[in-house]
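#onboarding

Welcome to the new folks! Below is a worked example of what a typical request in this channel looks like: someone posts a single protein sequence, and someone else replies with the predicted structure as tokens. Don't worry about understanding the tokens yet, we'll cover that in week two.

Example request:
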Amino acid sequence: MTKDLGKIWAERMTRSERDMSFPDSEPRDAATLMLIDRSGATPKVLLGRRHADHKFMPGKFVFPGGRIEAFDRQMTAASELHPDAEKKLLERVEKPSRDFARAFALAAVRETAEETGLLLGVRRDQPPAIPGEIWSEFAKASVHPNLGQLHFVARAITPPRRPRRFDTRFLTADASAIAHRIDGIVGQNSELVELTWIPIEEAARLDMPTITAIVIEELLARVESGMEHSLPVPFYFMIEKEFFRELL
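Example response:
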């Protein structure tokens, strides 16, 4: 991908209309997971549509994800993060630690299970040791999260004076990492009312937040570049109402 294209994406983020009249707050650490199905000729990505009655991004198509919970740092895993992914997750962090890096990966896996019913990892005869109830579905299904399956794709911080602010790490995994499915999670009374697998090149046409559309472009560029862990990771942040894109 060219440097000019990255600049264009940062400028697009700057131009995006947003209400910045809210009291300012510190961004919360969060993680998002982008599942890719590369079994066919055209890679597809999984997106979910949020309930229309939600106060936050109603009706928008998003990736499953959410903020880090305390037990995410303590959850066991079948394998750990690739060293390159771990290193990049800890760049530009005040208090870097291995537990902090893996917490992003585990939060992304847990949130995906909670919002879509898809449990990522490897199934074994014995259930994983879990630190708390929020990981109970993995124990019931004997699915062990496999952090080595995850790639770190992008990081973005919500601009100041927005109603909710997150410092989000966008990770991705192949659909082959799905080890178990829980029925009935997605529906009209759920956070996500539908799931759709859509070609990556077409996904940005859906109604979605600007950052989601930009990260889809980043994901496509990464797929086309070979999905190596050593590839640089873009970091989006705003200074004085202008978005910048740096590479980690």
